[in-house]
Amino acid sequence: MPQQMPEQAARRAAIVQYEHVSKSYATAKLRRGAPGAVNDLSLTVPAGKICVLVGPSGCGKTTSLKMVNRLIEPTSGRILIDGADVADRDATELRREIGYVIQQVGLFPHQTIGANVAVVPRLLGWPAARQRARAEELLSLVGLDPALYRDRYPAQLSGGERQRVGVARALAADPPLMLMDEPFGAVDPIVRERLQNEFLRLQAELAKTILFVTHDIDEAIKLGDLVAVMQVGGHLEQFAPPAEILAAPASEFVADFVGADRGLKRLSLTRVGEVALQPVVTARVGDPAGEARARTFEDPFPYLLLLDPSDRPIGWVNQRHIPGTGTLAASLATPMSPLLDRRTTLKDALSMMLDADVQTGIVVDRAGRLRGVLTVEAIAAALRPSADPDGIAAGASGAGA
Amino acid sequence: MNLVTATAAWLTNPAHWAGQFGIPNRLLEHVLIASISLAIALLLALPAGLAIGHTGRGAAVAASVANLGRSLPSLAVIAIAIPITVLIDPVLGGTVLPTLVAMVVLAVPPILVNAYTGIAEVDRDLVEAGRGMGMREREILARIELPVALPVVLGGIRSAAVQIVATATLGAIFGGGGLGRFLVDGIAQNDDGQVFGGVLLVAALAIATEVAVGLLQRLARSPGLRRGGRGPALGIAPPPPVLGM
Prior knowledge:
heterodimer, A: alpha/beta, Rossmann fold, CBS-domain, six-stranded mixed beta sheet, four-stranded antiparallel beta sheet, 18 helices, globular, disordered N terminus, B: mainly alpha, MetI-like fold, disordered C terminus
């Protein structure tokens, strides 16, 4: 029965609730390598949030994920999507309304990229023209030029490109809920980093409800609005926003799992835009030099940041090198600190500053115009416990085991 | 007269290319009986092989059946079949039917084994992805497993078809038609030209069958499976050696 998802209804994000969900396996099956068991899992994923299930192998995170689209049936308990028990739905129809991405991507090697993206629309019986249009729209969305990629085959793509196609495919029918099982696990760290950033950018636009499984705590902290740390045997150890998990691990297991460097990890939770930036003495190319020089001596920081006419930073000028007369020339500026933007994490910012052997990073907006500077001291201040969790915690209250 | 000239003389004699007992008609009989037995074998083995490959159940039984089928000499099968087929049809049961049975018995193993191993070796991640996106089992088989495994499945059919073409020759011993007539009659008449002319014709038909199905096999392979055919990007391991050759 060809049925089309009403676009309006599908746009919204879903709420997912686990209610005392358990999954156990017979011992005989366990010996053959059955997936991890789950023990009395209760948690609520608010609409439009990324919930990361993280834990060591055998902790039941993948089992928990697959019970949502009924690839695995729970032994007891129920899972509700927008209040409706998934067990009451036809499994096939349910799955067509939930995006699904797996680590190995599982692109169909005999089909073109366009056909792969349109798998679910085709199952739903969309007209061919609409399938094609949707596939092209999604390829553009994940940063792949449709004209270039539509007619290629998966074997011709790199691992990172295949992952993007996998995400595009899962988004095809605009599902209110996405399940992602270690989607970036099979690519190298550099590509993974890029895919994660793109994924966050995409999610900022789409605001889907996403259940995301990983064994990588750094990935969990980076991507999750909420993180569910699970322990072998399928116990939920802590369910909280990442900042809270890092600041106040609920158990020794969580503290161990998060690692001794959890203070440092908190750096990746905060973005430059969330920290108060310092002003700095600036002047534009062509401004009178003497006046600019005088201003630098009023400021404790002995440098002038030289800008071009559009306020884009060119570089630093030591106050002693500023001539007393004439105008400022671009050639006075020496190579500058790393350029940061509001979306850069403090971890990346600090790393870039250490690499460049400087104490200060220059923060610019999208057009490259100066917003202010970020100092190492400001990063240290942001790490102090007082500077902590934000509004996300409200969404998580009342959940947890 | 040596063998070559005798064979050439027999093959080029226009009289041998006409009439009910001429080469074209015998060829037609041969192709007909081969096609019928291949069709029967496909009907028996293909759905079973696909089902076993998809579900993973019954592989052991299928392997036993296949081994049994391969280990039985065709002549023995014909001999066993005659008493039974005669009961079904007193005339054909003594000639064409037992040969047909033997050919089907011979053709089932490669079709069955290649179908189930081909399907079973399709990357389970593809199946998982398909199921997770909401494909029904039938859709998984038709849209993922079969297209990806098609070269392997067709490899089994190719091997079966070639064996059938060769084995159909035996039918003449039991009074059936086909190209085998020239061998049996040639030996009886001590006509070397006819014997080896028949041998050449059977061989040519077998090779033509091999080439034709091979071509089909190549056409049926998706370009996505053809290019860059190495590494984990492909959904399937290199095809196992075609069985029964």
